[in-house]
Amino acid sequence: MRRARTWLPGLLLVAPSIILIGVFVYGMLGWNFRVAMTDQHDAVSEGEFVGLQNFIDIWDQQRWHLSVNHAIVFTIVFVVGALVLGWLLAFLMEKGIRGEGTFRAIYLFPMAISFVATGIVWRWLMNSGTGERAVGLNRLFDWIGLPQWQWFRDPDWGMAAMALPAIWQMSGYVMALFLAGFRGVPEELREAARVDGCTEWGVYRHVVLPLLRPVTLSALIILGHISLKVFDLIVAVSGKQIITDVPAVFMWVAVFDSNDPAKGATIASYIVLSVAIFVIPYLIWSVRKERRS
Amino acid sequence: MRRWLAAVSITMASVLGLAACGGGGGGQATQAPAASGGGKQQVEVFSWWTGPGEADGLQAMRKIFEEQNPNLTFFDAAVAGGSGDKAKALLQSKLQANTPPDTFQGHAGAELQGYIKAGNLEDLTPLYDELKLKDVFPAQLVEQISVDGKIYSVPVNIHRSNVLWFNPAVLKEAGVAAAPKTIEEFIAALEKVKAKGKIPLSIGSEWTVTHLMESVLLGTLGADAYNALFKPGADWNSAQVTTALNNFAKIMEYAGDPQDDWQPAAKQVADGQAAFNIMGDWAYGYFHNPPEGGLGKQSKTDFDWAPAPGTEGTYLWLSDSFTLPKGAKNRDGAMAWLKVAASKEGQDAFNPKKGSIPARKDADQSLYTDYLADALKDWSSNKLAGSIQHGVAVNQPWLAAINEAVGLYIGSKDVKGLQQGLADAATANAQ
Lengths: 293, 431
Description:
The complex is a heterodimer of chains A (293) and B (431). Chain A is 73% helix and 0% strand. Chain A is mostly helical. Chain A has one domain: MetI-like (MetI-like fold). The relative contact order of chain A is 0.13. In chain B, helix 8 crosses helix 9 (183-195). In chain B, the strands form 4 sheets. Chain B has a 5-stranded mixed sheet with strand order 2-1-3-13-6, with helices on one face. A 4-stranded mixed sheet of chain B has the order 9-10-8-11, with helices on both faces. A 3-stranded mixed sheet of chain B has the order 7-12-14. Chains A and B meet through helix 1, helix 3 and helix 12 of A and helix 1, helix 3 and helix 18 of B. Chain B: This is Probable sugar-binding periplasmic protein. Chain B: Residues 1-19 form the signal peptide. Chain B: It comes from Nonomuraea rubra.
């Protein structure tokens, strides 16, 4: 009884959230996988167990290939773009500049805006009109003599253009992460390297950058899972059009337009799995690191 | 002991807090109307009419409803969003949770099939008999909205989908004498406009291309062959359909850069940048209405209209209608609303504002002027064909499959693939 007094209050405190997460996150995930393994292809039928059939069948669909390709292009451009831009901003501010607080606030601010609001503004900025009909960025480009673009309507580069608002939104956050990383490198280490005859570039190359690896990894995880399940930004910019189709939009169409719960659940499962590919190695890595220390 | 108490009370508080959040997540559901004070009962009317014009029409009908039913109040459960995208998703979750609104708006015809199959809707045939509605609605309309001899909705208006909008000045400049009547004339006219450096045909987002395709299908096949495409076992692989899709591909070659939606595409015609646009007759309101909601253009001089090429004599129709869901809380109230929606008075109040014509044949013709007068005349004399994009000819999953095939075609320009996609969509969904 005495021992219960030490652990029971704590358990009671967290029990509600454990139960709720158990039911509404993991329970629902399990249910989703169960639906994905049935042939419930309309709103009314019960559906029988068909195993992994849906997971295989979906690869026969042209649209699925298209949406997966789009998601990959979007992810690469968005993750690399936000990492590089965020790193660069942090690097420029790292030495301490006048009015740093103001700059930090300005760069971080886009993160406070929802993807939907960002999307509606960028929908106008990335309008595909050219020449006389140009508005947004194309008007600006026309004005300063740069070539105009089709933006997200371009068949080849559309998804890369679609990543621009996402980069705009998230690079300030990446900057904050890297800035904290830079600041976390003890001055003594840099001094020691300089005493050993390192150039200023060498200090970064051999001391600072290696210490930034954990920060880079967390940034990668955060950006990666945002981009694989991106939905609101795409719908706000272009709506449910095939030209910018991604798995999450395809899932919405499958569930609400095609009334096909099994197909929707299959796509949802693939999205969860692809996010897991990003997150699980990170979890293993951080658990191992904790054990080591 | 004190720590215990603290822990338990915090736990309780957090559970209650979460429960409250859970309730709030229902959003609209918590607003569901209950009987309000004063013995007045609410009727929850669910629609997606929130834009200029359509919302005014709804208000006009509401006024009549409240005058006729002093013991009922109207609860406007409208959800914003063009063509009901968001509204339909919310409606679906409400129906699945068995908390339907008292009556909801839907496109008459096959779009409602999903709800009918799922057993969500009550049969309204008795209401049709009571009000003798089969005598006032066109016979072909009643036939096209019947499912197994039963009718599940009350159409309150009619829109036309096969309208060719054009800019007379641009046509004159390009040397096109009049609106093209056949597909061949249309292509020739597009070529002439192209030579002048203007956009021959303006288009919007992907659904407007499906909208264009249905007019080309109808224009090539004719009303009977077009209507036959939506019967079970229809042959979408026929040579006729191939011809139609080749026409469609040919016409698409003259299309300008896709715009964000139908309005900017229509505006290109109004502004004289483009010659032609094929869009439903809701575009008339946009062209004609004063600048708060429209472009304030003069009909016949700034813009003009004709049936889409090859479709003269056929009315490619769609209709907004109201239904009676099973388990409606206030069934009597919903019936009272349906009676207003079906009445001559209700439809004549709603339609001039919404920019559509009444489904009833006995409407007051003097209320409908300019484009609407033309539409009313054609409606009473033309053959009818159901729109694809607007839920008359095909059900929702079928439409989703067609839109997918068209969307993939826009990327690939592969006519064979498009025809195969359309054929597969029909095999999977026709019933």
